[in-house]
Every structure is written in C-alpha cells, then in structure tokens.
TrEMBL record:
The gene is gltX. Residues 357-481 form the Aminoacyl-tRNA synthetase class I anticodon-binding domain. GO terms for molecular function: ATP binding; glutamate-tRNA ligase activity; tRNA binding; zinc ion binding. The lineage of its organism: Bacteria, Pseudomonadati, Pseudomonadota, Alphaproteobacteria, Hyphomicrobiales. Keywords: Aminoacyl-tRNA synthetase, ATP-binding, Cytoplasm, Ligase, Nucleotide-binding, Protein biosynthesis. Catalyzes the attachment of glutamate to tRNA(Glu) in a two-step reaction: glutamate is first activated by ATP to form Glu-AMP and then transferred to the acceptor end of tRNA(Glu). It comes from Devosia ginsengisoli. Monomer. Signal peptide: none annotated. InterPro entries: aa-tRNA-synth_I_cd-bd, aa-tRNA-synth_I_codon-bd_sub2, aa-tRNA-synth_I_CS, aa_tRNA-synth_I_cd-bd_sf, Glu-tRNA-ligase_bac/mito, Glu/Gln-tRNA-synth, Glu/Gln-tRNA-synth_Ib_cat-dom, GluQ/Sye. Residues 17-320 form the Glutamyl/glutaminyl-tRNA synthetase class Ib catalytic domain. This is Glutamate--tRNA ligase. One of its GO terms (biological process) is glutamyl-tRNA aminoacylation.
C-alpha cells in the first residue's frame, strides 16, 4: 500500500492561490535559521501572487510569553517580511485539535490508549531485548473499549499503516521513502486533552489552507508522520520543500559562536535589513552566479527548484562585504536614520546626541564616509569626528603619528591656517601644498598627522573636507589641543 505525499495537491495547487506559512516557536527572538525560512516562504508567496500566513506555535506555555511573540514579530518587521492577516496562535486552537482527534477515533483511524508509563517502559525494554526499536507495540489498537480501566484518562493514538511505503515527494530532497513498518501509533492527543505538535501542525495547516510548506530538513521525518494524519482525514497534503540547515564555517551545525543569533543582534551589530535579506537568500538558494541582488529581483527569480540540497555555510566576511555594498549604495538620509536608531538601541547616548545636534553636517559627510564602512557601527564611529568632544580621544594608530617631530610640523600648519582669508577646501589644499613644498615634504606627510590631530583616527574623509565640515574654529581648537601637548 502506497501512502503518497501529495495525491492531487500539485493539480489543485495550479488552480488555487498559493498559501505558505511561517510557524515559529516563540523562544524570545527570531533566530537566523528561522529568518531564512520566513524569507523563502515569503518570497515564494510573493513570486506566485499568493499569501504567507504567520502562526505562532505557542503550545509550550512555559516558554511562550507575550515578550517572546513581540520579539518574533519585531524581527520579521525589521527584515521587511510581511504576512497576511493576523498572527494565529496555535495554543488558541486547542479545541479544534481535540475535535479532529476525536473525529479520527469515530472514523476508526485512531483509538484511545490507556497504557500507564510503567507499561510503556516495559514495552520499550522488551523491544530492546528483542533487538527492535523501543516503541509502542499497538496494545490498545484493536481492543474493545469495555476493557478500559476505570479512572484512567486515555491518550489518542493514530493508526499508522502497518505496511507499505510513505512517500514524501519533496521539492528539495526529491522522493524520500519511509517504510510504514518503522512507524508506531504515535500520540496525537495527550491525556489532558492537549494536542501533540505533530497533530496540531497538520490541523492548522489544513484549516489555514496552506498549499506549500517550506521548512528545515530536520522536519523531514515529521513529514512522514504528518502524512499519516492527512491521509486518515482524507485531506490533501501540501507540497513540501525541506531545506538543509545552515552550518558554521567549519561545517558543524550552526551555533551561537558561528552566528546563530537573533536578527536583533544583527541589527545591533550594524547590518542593514536589505543586506541580511540578500545574504540569507544566498544561503540555500541561488540564481546563477548572482551574489548581489535586490529583494525585488529575488522575488522575481525565486523558485523552489532553485533551493539547494547541500547545506549552506554561514560566513561573516561575505555578510560584511554584502552589507558594505548596501551601505555604499544607500541614500544618506536613510543611513542617518539607521545610525540614530542603532546608536539608541545599543545605548550610545553620546552618539545619539551628537548625530541629532549635527544632522546636516553628518548628511553632508556621509557620501565620503559610506565607502569606508561595512557596518552601521563603523559608520557611526567614522562620523564621530564631527561631534567629538575636545580634547579628542586619540586611538593607538593615530597616536603613533603624533610624535614630537610631527607636532612641530602641526604648529607650522596652524600658523599658516590662521592666516587664511578663505576657509574652503581649495584654499586649505593650496596652503598645505605650499607648506609641504617649502619643507621638502610630500603632502601626505602633512595630511597624516593633521588627520590624527583633527579626528583622533587614521581613517576619515579627505582631511581638508573634514576641516570645512567641522569649521574653522573647531579645526583650530583641535589643532591647538595637539600642538600644545607635551
């Protein structure tokens, strides 16, 4: 007997609207693997003109809090992933799950099981002793209910097929065959009336009209059990795409040391949502050799056939490079808002104040700063010269340039600069070139210590542009701080 995954779902899918879903458990944040699953589900629905639904699988009441749900929703919104309708609570549908379980009993496809924990332990031990997998042996499968012990609340178990194959015809994994004889009659409703995950997922996906399920390949074995429930109810099985999990650079399962963090951590590290979308799309999906593409292009190109069967490896260097691209291409006004929000989120109040008080100057400087930064945090650091308090904090590399010899040259520069009638880039440039020629030095020998004195760093926009941005008075005051230093 063949239990196929899809029956007529592929035909019906051609006639009906595509409906995907993202169904996270609220663990306090949207982790990076979940974000990728949401992205793929969203992109496929967008590509097909369909809908993506959001279901919060909050049946674990100890871990499911309002704060955790809010963190998930905020993470999706920051990534720019939208869903249709209101988020659905799986816990809120417990009565419906129980209704279907009891309906399966009436149909003869499930049954009440009264085994005690001790009896189940004994079954497992006997199976192990016989060299078989430790599992339930179907003791109550065909027993009459008149044999039920008094005062025992039963569980409900599905009647799994005893022979044949269960086939998952997967868009990524291909045709995956499970032997029915290796399944036991698993529980779909606990003795307290609450559903198991395996059962709740099937009922919810059916009732929500889900046509396509995209999820991690750690759910592949679950698919076989879920098909048993679909077939028992006579429901069409959604099409499935089980994507490989993300691995770390070393090939091991992604962990926190690799980057398995919540998306809010990436926001706080200075990554742009459009860059993270682009990078996550390439972790398990491809369109030729394209590495950089807009979200609109991704939606246009996205297909389940483009999903990769091999595991993708998370690489912070590639993510930074992609983020740098998006920072270079972004409008200064947009970046300014992100810099302000990021500073506030990570608790850098001095940057919030400085950015707020110097908005126009920062906006003017950003086209010079953007090519030098790969993250928003780097961009904030590069902009600090605009509003830094005197005396400037000089970093180690810049301090190495401020020797007694270069401070003497700075004094000469200060003398020349005081005599300028016009404070502009061409005027400052001409004056410094004349001084360099008079001293027999290359212009860089003047510019490097000047940059260190005026910004506290060795990297900045053109130093003459910096001087115009912060103004004559501030430039001369910072120069005085360093030329008077011992």
């Amino acid at each position: 007997m063949l239990h196929t995954a899809h029956k007529s779902s592929k035909l019906s899918g051609l006639m009906s609207q595509v409906v995907t879903r993202f169904a996270p458990s609220p663990t306090g944040y949207l982790h990076i693997g979940g974000a990728r699953t949401a992205l793929f589900s969203w992109a496929y629905a967008q590509n097909k003109g369909g809908k993506m639904l959001l279901r919060i699988e909050d049946t674990d009441r100890e871990r499911s809090t309002e704060a955790a749900v809010t963190a998930l929703v905020d993470g999706l919104k920051w990534l720019g992933l939208t869903w249709d309708g209101e988020p659905i609570s799986q816990f809120g549908r417990a009565a419906r799950h129980a209704e279907v379980a009891h309906e399966l009993v009436k149909m003869g496809h499930a049954y009440y099981c009264y085994c005690s924990p001790a009896e189940l332990d004994q079954m497992r031990e006997e199976a192990r002793a016989a060299g078989k997998p430790p599992r339930y042996n179907g003791y109550w499968r065909d027993r009459d209910q008149s044999e039920a012990p008094d005062g025992v609340a039963p569980v409900i178990r599905i009647k799994a097929p005893l022979s044949g194959d269960i086939v998952v015809d997967d868009h990524v994994q291909g045709k995956v065959v499970f032997k029915a004889e290796n399944l036991d009659d698993f529980i779909i409703l606990r003795s307290d009336g609450t559903p198991t995950y395996m059962h709740a997922v099937v009922v919810d996906d059916h009732d929500m009209g889900v046509t396509h399920i995209i999820r991690g390949d750690d759910h592949l074995t679950n698919a076989a059990r879920q098909i048993v429930i679909y077939n028992a109810m006579g429901w069409t099985v959604p099409e499935m795409a089980h994507i490989p999990l993300i691995h770390g650079p070393d090939g091991a399962k992604l962990s926190k040391r690799h980057g398995a963090l919540g998306v809010e951590a990436y926001r706080q590290m200075g990554y742009l949502p459009e860059a993270l979308r682009n990078y996550l799309a390439r972790l398990g999906w491809s369109h030729g050799d394209d590495e950089i593409f807009s979200t609109e292009q991704m939606v246009e190109w996205f297909s389940l056939e483009g999903l990769n069967k091999g595991a993708a490896r998370f690489d912070f260097v590639k993510l930074e490079n992609i983020n740098g691209h998006y920072i270079r291409e972004a409008a200064p006004a947009y970046l300014y808002d992100v810099m302000l929000a990021t500073s506030a989120e990570v608790g850098r109040q001095a940057d919030v104040d400085g950015l707020s008080a110097n908005k126009e100057t920062v906006l003017t400087a950003l086209p010079e700063l953007q090519p030098r930064a790969k993250t928003v945090l780097e961009l904030i650091d590069l902009a600090q010269f605009i509003y830094a308090s005197r005396p400037l904090a000089i970093d180690a590399a810049a301090a190495a340039l401020l020797t007694p010899e270069t401070r003497a040259v700075l004094r000469d520069m200060a003398e020349v600069l005081r005599g300028l009638n016009e404070w502009s880039v061409p005027a400052i440039d001409a004056a410094m070139r004349a001084l360099a020629e008079a001293k027999g030095l290359k212009l860089g020998k003047l510019a490097q210590p000047l940059r260190a004195a005026l910004t506290g760093r060795t990297v900045s926009p053109g130093i003459f542009e910096v001087m115009v941005l912060i103004g004559r008075d501030e430039s001369m005051a910072r120069l005085e701080d360093q030329t008077s230093a011992v």
